[in-house]
Amino acid sequence: MIQKIKGTMDILPEETPLWRHIEGIMREEAERYGYGEIRTPTFENTELFVRGVGDTTDVVQKEMYTFADRDEGRSISLRPEGTASVVRALIENGKCSDPMPLKYYYIMSCFRHEKPQAGRSREFFQFGTEMFGSASPAADATAISLANSVLNRLGLKNVKLHVNSIGCKDCRPTYRKALVDYYSSHIDSLCDTCKTRLDKNPLRLLDCKNPDCHALAAGAPRTVDHLCDTCKGNFDMLGRALDAMNIDYEVDPAIVRGLDYYTGTVFEFIAEGIGSQSTVCGGGRYDGLVSSLGGPELSGIGFGMGITRLILALRELGLDSLEAERPEIYIASLGERAMIKGLEIAERLRREGKFAECDVVGRSLKAQMKYANKKGARYTLIIGDSEIDAGIAQLRDMESGEQREVSLDSFSL
What we know:
Layout: H1 16-32, E1 36-37, E2 43-45, H2 46-53, H3 58-63, E3 66-68, E4 75-78, H4 83-92, E5 102-111, E6 123-132, H5 137-153, E7 159-165, H6 172-184, H7 192-200, H8 211-217, H9 229-244, E8 250-251, E9 263-271, E10 279-285, H10 289-292, E11 300-306, H11 307-316, E12 329-333, H12 336-351, E13 356-358, H13 365-375, E14 379-383, H14 385-390, E15 392-397, E16 403-407
Parallel strand pairs: 1-5, 7-8, 12-13, 12-14
Antiparallel strand pairs: 2-4, 3-4, 5-6, 6-11, 7-9, 9-10, 10-11, 14-15, 15-16
Helix pairs in contact: 1-5, 2-4, 5-9
């Protein structure tokens, strides 16, 4: 038997009502905040992610699905995240001259070759938002507020907001030096991966999950202690904005995010009780990304929210049960004439916006009624030759048991 590829998932009809519920809340909240939906290709030129995400990141070095284009021989990669593609789209489609800020949201599948575990798969589904054209901390607060609104509407109570600032191109070198000096004095305690990161991407040392490296991170220099006056002022204003919006948070120096394009504000919403993959939402500011990909100097702030991890968090709270929609009517038929009539009635009701089902298998009446009960149909209508000849039948309310006579050609629910 051919099976699904490791790290992918089937989402079955009994599960999709919950997915649609979550996605519906995401769309509604994003649009309430003035974001419009954008859809980008599933694969892009590999160079987009090398330049956009960063060639020193684990995503680019270890996790991307990359292959040669059969026709042109160029290197193509499945998207490992959404931001770089959105930036490419706004540059290519001339959106950088539109009135600012530009606000986009998306719900997409992304791909990374990682070790599958609870909350982490190789094909994963993500809700993301991007705002361009505002360097103000008010934009940061708005992005965080949108993420917070989605989580609140989903009913998640076990999620905490962690915020940090990793500085800008002016103050980052000072912090980088302090970080390298600190870890260089403990180099024998670092894992092999972090020894490589020390030269190439020292910020990634702070969120290493190796126990020895994690213990070292607790005593490492804090980014917030090495900010320039501008970054410090922006971070202070963000705190005041979140306080004014009644959004609880804690400053967490370990929040650095894993992609090279982040600058200034970074944040994560972390859920308790769902295991090691507890970050259900992460994001931050990326003020140099648009220009690095060939566009103008344009500020950016956004986040990504993993839908699978949200479902794990909802399950932990017992909020993951959502019934599939029930048919408003099931039409049981006896014989070929009645089956054709059932199809006719069902089609008319569907065109009126009703959820109608009818027999298409040729089951016995007993089997059809069992099926209608299993599906939770609100009404049933049984038709045979005598009902067709008379033009009337009995419509039964399955909850109350009450019946009423209806015309087969004109009745409506």
